[in-house]
Design goal:
It is a single chain. The chain is mostly helical. It has twelve helices and seven strands. A three-stranded antiparallel beta sheet has the order 5-6-7, with no helix packed on it. A two-stranded antiparallel sheet has the order 1-2. Strands 3-4 form a two-stranded antiparallel sheet.
């Protein structure tokens, strides 16, 4: 019992450290990638003893700045709810990654260790529950700030997140129907099969429409451009306009953590998770014949690296979208969600069901 607790604690530390490290690094990536895309030099001011290293010290400078800034609470604000809101947002975003499997079962020290913090039969429902609870942070921040702009930002955020969560859930149902499980590790295992012994049976192959709908709705959940109406930093003012210091930092980090979470879900449900095409427990089996034998440790290492590579690739892609597309108008946002994406997601379920019935 104690050994199991120690293993789960170690896995939790690894996962949280991975997510927080990537989130911290993304504050630099966002500046640098946008600078490259806009033909600017980018983050290059922070230095230590004259060394700048492509601006990599900027995340450290950000943390020092947020810790040192005044923790301001506006007059008339509901202090308890005002303090609770950023904690709610960041906590549920981090908690959701617990159900993500980042590798297969590892045989070590005479034990079988599942590389997943919480192995839940309803892992997908758990993630959706955590993502749904995150909206309360947005609502509480808007209501408790005693600021009309923050209140309106909170209302925009709540209506946007609730609207797109329906499409989010419906879009992924097609993958649930195909793989017949809500267990994310089970979904990844099912994607290890190959169609005609050649094409990996990943979610993007068997559910391309569902994958596109899910990715679009999930980006709306992250509240980033082109779906950043709840925040609208420079023009329409968002729900955390009254926040400063580390409370603002928690909202700031929540956006990045949610981006990482969406990349992890896309990887797990639609891009094979930790699976590598034609890589099995004993090595690589080429579709045209031939086997490259590998030890268990090498296979597990490659599969964990595969998961990390896919997650990083998705984050890079989301950054490109962030710095390429303009912001939607609010009526365009609602029209896209309710008049186009929701009906298409329903049609995708019907078509998936018919195909499954026809092929038996």
């Amino acid at each position: 019992m104690l050994e199991q607790l120690a293993i789960k604690t170690a896995l939790s530390v690894i996962m949280v450290a991975f997510v927080m490290s990537i989130a911290g690094l993304l504050t630099w990536v966002e500046r640098k990638q946008s600078a490259v895309m806009q033909d600017r030099v980018g983050a290059n001011r922070a230095s230590i003893f004259g060394f700048r290293i492509l601006g990599l010290f900027h995340p450290i400078a950000d943390v020092i700045k947020m810790v040192m800034k005044e923790d301001f609470t506006p007059s008339g604000a509901q202090r308890f709810l005002f303090t609770l809101a950023p904690v709610v947002s960041v906590t549920f975003a981090i908690a959701a990654v617990a159900a993500i499997p980042f590798g297969p079962e590892l045989q070590a020290f005479g034990r079988t260790i599942s590389l997943q913090v919480a192995q839940l039969d309803i892992g997908l429902l758990y993630i959706f529950a955590m993502m749904s609870l995150g909206v309360y942070g947005v609502i509480l921040a808007g209501i408790s700030s005693n600021n009309n702009y923050a209140f309106l930002g909170g209302l925009r955020g709540a209506s946007q997140m609730l609207s797109y969560e329906i499409t989010l859930g419906v879009a992924i149902l097609g993958a649930v129907m195909v793989y017949s499980t809500l267990d994310l590790q089970g979904m990844v295992m099912a994607q290890g099969k190959h169609l005609w012994g050649l094409i990996p049976m990943w979610g993007i192959i068997v559910q391309p429409v569902g994958a596109l709908l899910f990715m679009t709705a999930a980006l709306a959940e992250t509240k980033r451009i082109p779906f950043d109406l709840p925040e609208g930093e420079s023009e329409i003012v968002g729900y955390f306009v009254e926040y400063s210091g580390m409370k603002f930092g928690m909202f700031f980090m929540t956006d990045f953590i949610e981006t990482i979470l969406v990349a992890m879900i896309m990887t797990t449900v639609f891009f094979g998770g930790w699976q590598v095409p034609w890589l099995f427990a004993d090595g690589i089996h080429w579709p045209w014949g031939g086997v490259v034998a590998m030890s268990h440790g090498v296979v597990v290492g490659l599969q964990v690296l595969s998961f990390v590579f896919k997650v990083v690739a998705f984050i890079w892609f989301f950054m490109i979208i962030r710095w390429t597309l303009p912001r939607f108008r609010y009526d365009q946002l609602m029209r896209l969600g309710w008049k186009y994406m929701f009906p298409v997601s329903l049609a995708n379920i019907v078509i998936t069901g018919l195909v499954l019935v026809l092929i038996g």
